[in-house]
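Run log, item B.
One chain of 437 residues. Sequence copied directly from the ordering sheet:
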Amino acid sequence: MRSKAFDVPHRIVILGAGTGGTLVANRLRRLYQRKEASITVVDQDDRHVYQPGLLFVPFGLTHPEDIVRPRHRQLGGGIDFRQVPIERLDLDGSIVHLADGTSLGYDVLVIATGSRLQPEETDGLTGAGWMERVFTFYSPEGAAALGAALARFERGRLVVNIVDLPIKCPVAPLEFCFLADWYFHERGIRDQVQISFVTPLDGAFTKPVASKALATMLAEKDIELVTEFNTGKVDGANGKLISYDDREVTFDLAVVVPLHGGASYLTSAVGLVDELGFVLTDEHTLQSEARPNVFAIGDAAGVPISKAGSVTHFEGEALVENVRRFLDGKPLDASYDGHANCFIETGFSNALLIDFSYDVEPLQGHYPSSLGLPLLKESHLNHLGKLMFQWFYWHILLPGRQVPGISSAMPRAGKKDLPAPAVEGATKQQVATVDRG
């Protein structure tokens, strides 16, 4: 760590200029003047995708060009953007080695590299039928190609399949099913199309309360739910998903959510990531388990909560506070509770909203207070909230602005049957004072 006695600015390096990297960089720039800290953001491209918008592309409700903007333009003044791939990390030397032969030393490293699709890891997925009758909407190109296929689809079985978890925005495949139901009703061919949701989970969602509500909605919309299906092979030529236990699900059109993993170069740093490539992270401080001067945010962080934009937003507040504490030589704040909320588009201009945390299930009530949006209940107001989030994303969330009445902690007001707060002092809440020697 550089000594402030020499008035040398702290060196903060952020890997990834997606949601997490961008909002953290902008929040840190508000916190530190240029003479106090240099902030460098590194990414391999200059293409920032508003990922919630990918869901709407296949149904013609938006277009790829409407949800993509340059990364560098989302970063505030005084933030250095380097567009270059990352080669490897040297945690012992606190150095990031870049593919162009240069390197960046750091006092604090923030890993915000997101998650990457790994369709090649599933046998047959990118083989026969790929981008013909087998698609994914988790990329702009895939979403656009799927839109063309849906427009041609007249009858048959549409299967939406999650290969395995974790994935980005775990409610998105469910939303796709609900929108497909609406879409085919609009075209007057819903009775000609069978829709199946095929998941490795034992229910519709990871949280039991929400899972029960969502399974009921699937049944009401005549969408088949196939559970505990672990996809081992995709046979695009013959239209089959084949599980590891040899179960089969046939399809005429398949929408597959591939395996997700962390950035490949992170594995070069011993002890940094788990078996999927996500950063081993303290779930309450967002500090890496490998080194005290490394933090992780968003999809890159291996914490037990959804990989969703709202999570990244709430994590950002906690992470920036802990970067400040670390640089000041103070104990970290271990109060981040895994707050997450998700709008679930249910079709016909309605949506559901869920709000939860590490320890609290999605509950009925309202968010963020008793006068807010309805929870676990379809409403047009929630649909409008989902649509408005895109403006909020570009103009509030990414610039790192504070929203009055919204904080990283899950609000307790307005919720029904909320359990009493856990008693603090558990082992996972303890944080050792940073060694500054």
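Observations after the first pass:
- Residues 1-6, 423-437 have pLDDT under 50 and may be disordered.
- The radius of gyration is 22 Å.
Flagged for discussion on Thursday.
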